[in-house]
Amino acid sequence: MIWLSNKNNIKSFGYKLNQKFTTFNYHTNPSLDGTNNLYIHQSYILIFLLFIGFISHAQYDFAEIDKHVANIGFNPKDKLAEKITSEFTTDLEKVRALFVWITNNITYDFELLESKKLKQEFYISQDSVIDKTLERKKAICSGYSLFFKKLCNDLDIQGEVVNGYSKQWFDSSISKNVPDHAWNAVKIDEKWFLIDTTWASKNEDNTERDDFWFMTNPESFVYSHYPEDEKWTLLENGLTKEDFDQLPSITDRSFFEDEIKILIPDKKIIDVEKDRIIKIELGTNNTELEILLRGYPYETYASKNNLEFPSDEEYAKLTSEERNKHNKVIPSIEIIKTEIKFNKILIKARLTSENIKEFEIVVQGIDIATIKVNLK
Predict the structure, then answer these.
(1) How far apart, in Å, are the Cα atoms of 70 and each of 60, 84, 95, 147, 148?
(2) CATH at residue 313
(3) Are residues 88 and 213 in the same domain?
(4) What's the CA gap between 282 and 287, in Å, rounded?
(5) 196 and 333 share a domain?
(6) Of the four listed, 133, 205, 317, 327, which is most buried by Cβ atoms within 10 Å?
(7) Cis bond leading into 218, ω under 30°?
């Protein structure tokens, strides 16, 4: 099993189970009644294929819709769903309009997230949550997803709230036992699609809407979202919660576009021989990527030589050169050789610290993988 973690925005790979690689296949029509119409089966092949050919919003220009919706305000007397979509005819256009309006006008409610009192006040019923979302123009994930479902249903578009488990870089190593997130599935032209208005919305940290979470490819979505009911992965092969826990969080489309795969190592913990040499092999359609390796914990000149950090008074007496030497970071891993072979990047590196516990593979400045090491 290889996993990827990215502390800025985590990217993509596949997973390996029982020495066989398994594919993700997208399924558009899961059963809603829990019968054997789930069409879930497991197919194994010799190599992992990352499917990019997904009919999605990327093939549709929503610029005019987005521009129109940006000018739509809200009046409590309005039939909001109809007002937002009055200029549009297809379900796809209407769903896009609802998504844009919500992500433009509803911000994340950090106050509600932290307040037990407010939750007790708001969470009386689904209608109460929706009313408070509109009243405050703020919500947490349950409010976003319930509100989006209501607007869809008001237009006779089938939408569902999907409760499940989320994964982001800061908790990607944690196996969660209690669902902590909610998003939506919506049916358009007899096909189901996944949408997360919470993660797409503008907030104090992100001033732009993140369209990655609109009709996201299920093969991408599953690296950061896992539903309580497996059918809502929309993966024909399905995916167990245990397998999800071994996958990374993926929140950025760029690595799907570059089709980056870590071929070697093929597991998240590796044994390193006494020569401390490691080999990394990346598959990608862009071999001009900048690759760096970053070891943890890193050392400084002081820590490596067991020097005590000087007191403020002593430090003040040091020359600039002495201070720089004292604080100098000593890399715990170094790249010896990089080689390009067709669509592969091959890296040979050496671990230079006996204290190293793990290293990150950094591509274009973004951490895409964390590999733990056992030194022999």
Answers:
(1) 18, 10, 15, 18, 17
(2) 2.60.40
(3) yes
(4) 9
(5) no
(6) 133
(7) no
Residues 184-234 have pLDDT tens digits of 999 999 999 999 999 999 877 778 899 989 999 998 898 889 999 999 999
Q: Are residues 180 and 285 in the same domain?
A: no
Output the pLDDT for position 255. 66
Please give the Cα distance from 69 to 101 (Å, whole number): 6
Q: What are phi and psi of 254, to 5 degrees?
A: -60, -35
CATH code of residue 139: 3.10.620
pLDDT bin (cut points 50, 70, 90) of residue 29 is: low
Helix, strand, coil distribution of the chain in percent, nearest 5 = 30, 25, 45
pTM comes to 0.67
Full 3-state SS string of 163-230: EEEECCHHHCCCCCCCCCEEEEEEEECCEEEEECHHHHCCCCCCCCCCHHHEEECHHHHCCCEEECCH
**CB-based contact 51:27 (threshold 8 Å):** no
Bridge partners (DSSP) listed for residue 345: 282, 340
> Among the listed ranges 50-59, 62-71, 201-210, which one has the minimum average pLDDT value?
50-59
Structure tokens given for 362 = 């950094």
Calpha distance 80→9 (Å, rounded): 34
Give the tokens for residue 342. 């067709």
SS3 state of residue 21: strand
CA 315 to chain centre: 43
Cα separation, 45 vs 321, in Å, equals 58
- The single-letter DSSP state of residue 231 is G
At 222, the amino acid letter reads V
DSSP state of 232: G
